[in-house]
Amino acid sequence: MSSTEMKIRSARRSQLRDKLIRGRWLYLMALLPIIYFLVFKFGPIYGLQIAFRNFRVRRGIWGSEWVGLEYFQQYLADPSFWVLVRNTIVLGLGQIAFVFPCPIVFALLLNEVQSKSGQRIIQNISYLPHFISVVVVASMCSTFLARDGIINQMIVAVGGEAHLFMQDPGWFRPIYWLSNLWQELGWSAIIYVAALTNVDEQLYEAAVIDGANRWQQTVHVTLPAIKPTIAIMFIMAVGNIMSVSFEKVLLLQNELTYDVSDIISTFVYRKGLSGGQYSYTTAIDMFSTVTNFVMLLVANRVCRMLGESSLW
Amino acid sequence: MRQNKGVGYRIFQVFNIILMIAICLVILFPIYYMFIVSISDGVAVMTGQVTLHPVGFSLRAYRAAMKDSYFLNSYWNTIVITVSGTIVNLVMTALFAYPLSRPDFYGRKLLMRCAVFTMFFTGGMIPTYMLVTNLGLGNTYWALILPGAISVYNMIIMRTFFEGIPFDLTEAAYIDGANDVRILCSVILPLSKPIIWTMVLFYAVGHWNGFFNALLYLTDKSQYPIQLFVRNVVLSGDTLSMAMTTYNSSTEVGAEMLSESAAKYAIIIMSMLPILVVFPIVSRHFKSGVMIGAIKG
Amino acid sequence: MKKIISLLLVAGMLLAMSGALAESELLTEEPVTITYMRAENSAIPVQDDVASTRQILERTGIDLDITAVPGSDYNTRMTALYAAFDMPDIFGLFNMTKREMVEDGALLCLTDLLEEYAPNIMAYYEQYPELWRTTVDGEIYSLPQIRVDQNLEAGCVPFIRVDLLEEAGLEMPTTWDELADVLVTLCETYDVGGWAARGTGRILGDDDYSWMNSFGADFTTYMDDEGAWHLGMIEPEYKDAILYLKNLVEQGALDEEWLTTSTAEWQEKLSSGRFIFFYDNPTFASGINTALAAIDPDARFEPLPLLENPYGEVRSYKQPTNYIDTFFVSADTENPELLVQFLNWCYSDEGAITFGYGREGETYYIDEEGNPQWLPEILEKYANAEDAYYQASSDMGVNNGYFCPAWMNLTIEVFRTSANPDEITAQYIYDFYEEQLNDGTIVERPLLPPLSSEQDARIQEIKQSIWDLAKTEFAKFVMGTRPIEEYDAFIEELVSLGADEWAGILNEAETAYQEQMAA
What pTM value is reported for the model? Predict the structure, then answer.
């Protein structure tokens, strides 16, 4: 090792020491949060090993026998495997296909409202549902869509026939998506509205000079301007495909709709925490987390390759 | 300014306004509907007469809810959880966000990565459950507060805001001999009111609306928060003593009837009340905060 | 009369035994807390400080701490606490089997402790030898709830709107087939829904008591007249029952929402006059007639005599006198001896009176003949109260909604009629079905034999793979969302998942048990 290298190293080391000393209060501050992350976020990741053990409660994690990939194999052989994966993905993909574009359109339309105070009122109303709890939203779905609920009353009033929406597997997904849309339309739009207000006015002026009409302005100026925002939101949405809103599904599903409504997380909850099959369901859960994570990485890579902004 | 006065655009404007009004109605109607049912006469509700406006007037549903001691109890529990939980959230989030916002903080990249990693990769329901109960947090409100003490997403928003505060201020405070804790408390935080209120709103609403952790970790019914109460009454049909008040045992004629749905809606409305009241007041303040997080992602 | 005499004899016997334990003698000098967790009946909220727990503390020195969990979450909560090593001292059954808990070492083995400290409990094992069916490898791990006064219950029974029946000039149905016709006719005539039911259990029969028993079918395992076990869901009678339901749905005579209807919603459907028939435990129908009268003074639900099923039989199951496997003791309990002594007290006369009446001087007094009676102010307090029956039970912590190993089930009956003399009481139901209750038409469901470790594990395995699946699919057949042509194929699927093994295992276990008892 040459002496210059040594010098650089020791210089770096002392620089580092300086940094650490100078930042001692900052480290002290971050200590509590770091402990929090180690315990509550990485602790459960460490606990994932019960997926590889035949976990018996009273023997504890360490006392339980190591079984390797047995539970993963069991899961892949389980007839419910494909049903669960399919239901989870369909629900998540549908969310992207039907629900994801709506706030963008809403933001664009809202932007076309001339009166500023009108815009503000509409926007304020539109994100109110975001603050309503999932319990209440699910309660509204189940009571409004019941046999004697308001929706069926309306259908009967216009001469239709009452339908049991909550028990019809064909309606489960639409109910899930629509209620999500109701709840998140305005909230998700905030981001796009903000992006729209930041679009450079000069671009529009230039477009007007070129003779572009309103529609052409939207297509050629507005959309490209908010494309990075859309890309980021899209990656986030893809990253969440497998983690569909577990709570809402749990609250909305019933035995008649399990065929389409049972997703990985509700299955884990029902068979794992209620049914006591801890290892098996942990393996299932881990499987979906890993899949999810991989999908996120892929989506991020794809966006970067397409030259859009990416998460990292 | 953008100019365009074509006839087509005028027509579009009219339709657009109509569409916007329709969206607002679709959003508001369910809440309005639950309200009118909850104050309508029980028999009118049961026979399906209530659709667009209240029929008769009865506060029986609200009286029945107030009579249920578990309802009031759960309301109070939620307040306790929301207040204490939000304080823990704020302190923890700020303690992490501030160091990470400092360009001179060695290791910030690594810590940031680890934090973001946990956003997308978690231990899952069962290991988390085992951990929390093994720490002895079961049956305490800590189980609802500690596992979610820092939301990485909120932390990033806060960090981004802190980064926007000129570093000169920090440097100046250093020269005056202040340490980092003092700087955070007396320089940074006073300048961060909008983001703090945004965080208060986000976290508080999260606590107010949470039910699943309570379902997992709390055993004793007297500890339940309001959302779990609502879920038990409305969705699980575990109607508490309320349901029984449907039958007015006094046989006198004209006794007020209480319909099941009016009772449910009354509980729902009351569970949303704080949000419905606070929302218009704070909505102006938090928008700026959301955007900070949103744009920088 | 015979019953009453035998009851008196039992009571006398108990009194003699509990004499050994002088009434005021505390089990412990310092108060000791014992925790108990149960599923809560939503109609009877469990309150903290009530007359019965006060009396328990005064008479035994035990501070009984009861935690109640809403019925639908009970299984989840218990499984969760089980996983966290955080079991209460005493708890009820949840979805771990007794055998699993024993093998995990989670249950306290009671056999020796009972022998030593609990003569009251052992006396019941003498009196009801079938209780030995609840043992695991011959050891006692669970305790029954003993009904110490008369069992007036008659299981689930049919109720119909007699006023409509009369108005339409229809005969009282006497068979299930006639009932279907009557319901269809009434639905068409009066534009009402027919049969209202709550949850899957009451319709598909996965509850122990449902209309299925009377129809001659069963979802779960049952014993035939020859003493052989069967799994009901794969038997042909079950298909007939499903077809019967399907037909009612098609004709609009069975509430399509039966699957998701909660008890409260069900009560409202009936009491608002929208539905005209139910087949359920009459206890839950209490109050319906009163509410109905507010809408139409003539409207009234009344019980029907038991219906004859398509196989020409009249039969039904009633609630057992003693509920088995009701109380379990955690292996982690701190002082097993004291706990068993306390349990022994619970099964004494004094215990039974405490669980039935509350606290002496506060809620009841002992009359000249030595019998407990409600205090006049208590009777007065609930005379006009809403739902006095439930309210009184909840306020005082008495009867089945609380903790009562020795159960005087009739003590609070008096509150049922206090506000409305016409209300349906246990006595009314008993009188209505008295003949059939006494001639063996309505019987208790036979108890399962004890299982070996392998037998239990195999049955659990089968149950896990078929139980929920069967419920879901049978519901679809009833609703017509799955074509009935696929029914036989579905039964084959169940069989391929091991459904036919289930009954075989039980028969094997039954034989082994019989041999063991003979020896």
Answer: 0.82
